[in-house]
Design brief:
single chain; five-stranded antiparallel β-sheet; 7 helices; alpha+beta; about 300 residues; binds flavin-adenine dinucleotide
Length: about 300
């Protein structure tokens, strides 16, 4: 088999050597990484994975839930940016979506094809693969209820079809969030709906989010902490952070957003160390004042390229 750089050159796949990862992350916190590869088809994604799956790699979709360290220590680390972008009708109940399709583009496709029941993802940044990996959701719904099956690249280098239960979906979590297996395509169930009705729902979801969460315009990775569930009830992490007096406060290069206390924002030149420091302070204070342990929703990458 050709080595990775030969393959990238032959297939004319975009790549960068010793390049900053910041532009690929919505929080904009990260460092120079040895190799960044940008794939635009599912075949290229499979081709790249088949050459590097035994080496250290991190696969990113929209990079909207991830923070990189200030330094990467492994000279062999590859970051794959997944921009595979095809969407097709699978049968009259499901659509087949490349995992690199942006939620935004999927919403526009759905509007044109009368695909209802997925509008809860309107306004959630990132790709459909990322959404499946973290079980993204909004408005009380999450992708776990619409994902029927997926084509995946497993950790032994095999490509296979797996059913919904393989994901072991939980609140903002799945077996893929911290794992090494890669989702190549997802098959989503839908409800046929009039085009105008899909348009209305998508537009109103986006308008609602813009009005309620202006902090969405900042450099962030979305809600930083999971909403803690106590006695079966979901509690707002943002409210708890507000109650301990952290809302709107600045901590070196990072701040707790004014509009939404569960958004930790990069003020411009934030470092990973500063984010970790603020995270620790918030967790400590919430535990001390409220007796509740907050759990991080955002994914950190170690300097060796492991997710945690
Ligand atoms: C302003 C803002 C608002 C947000 N609002 C919401 C919200 O309302 N609801 C919500 O749930 N989230 C929200 N988020 C968080 C984030 O957008 C979602 O978690 C999103 O689904 C992540 O997708 P992504 O493509 O950006 O994934 P990334 O951040 O690129 O990756 C996240 C994780 O998924 C893995 N991954 C990505 N693609 C694949 C794949 N193809 N196969 C296997 N693993 C993969 C990555 O390795 C990583 O572990 C928000 C974020 C921001 C910045």
């Amino acid at each position: 088999m050709m080595d990775i750089k030969e393959f990238l050159g032959k297939e004319k796949i975009e790549y960068y050597v010793n390049h900053s990862i910041k532009a690929y992350l919505t929080m904009g916190v990260g460092c120079t990484v040895p190799l960044i590869v940008v794939v635009r088809t599912d075949d290229h994604l499979k081709g790249v994975l088949s050459r590097i799956y035994k080496e250290p790699f991190v696969l990113l979709g929209g990079g909207s839930n991830v923070v990189f360290p200030d330094v990467v220590s492994d000279p062999d680390l590859t970051v794959i940016i997944n921009r595979s972008d095809a969407i097709n009708q699978d049968n009259n109940q499901t659509i087949k979506v490349n995992s690199g399709v942006l939620n935004l583009d999927l919403m526009e496709w759905n509007v044109k094809h009368g695909i209802g029941g997925l509008d809860f993802l309107a306004g959630v940044p990132g790709t459909i693969g990322g959404a499946a990996a973290v079980n993204a959701g909004a408005f009380g719904e999450s992708i776990s209820t619409t994902l029927v099956k997926a084509e995946i690249f497993d950790s032994n280098g095999n490509i296979k079809i797996v059913a919904n239960d393989y994901f072991q979906f939980q609140y903002r979590n799945s077996a893929f969030k911290y794992g090494k297996e890669v989702i190549i395509n997802v098959f989503l169930s839908y409800i046929p709906e009039a085009l105008a009705s899909v348009r209305d729902k998508v537009d109103s979801r986006i308008a609602y989010r813009k009005e309620k969460h202006p902090a969405f315009d900042y450099l962030s990775a979305g809600c930083f902490f999971k909403n803690p569930i106590i006695d079966g009830q979901k509690n707002s992490a943002g409210k708890l952070i507000e109650q301990i007096g952290f809302k709107g406060t600045a901590h070196k290069g990072v701040m707790v957003a004014d509009e939404h206390a569960n958004f930790i924002v990069n003020s411009g030149n934030a470092t990973f160390a500063e984010i970790q420091d603020l995270e620790e302070k918030i967790v400590r204070e919430v535990a001390k004042q409220k007796g509740i342990t907050l759990e991080r929703e955002v994914i950190y990458i170690t300097s060796e390229g492991k997710k945690y």
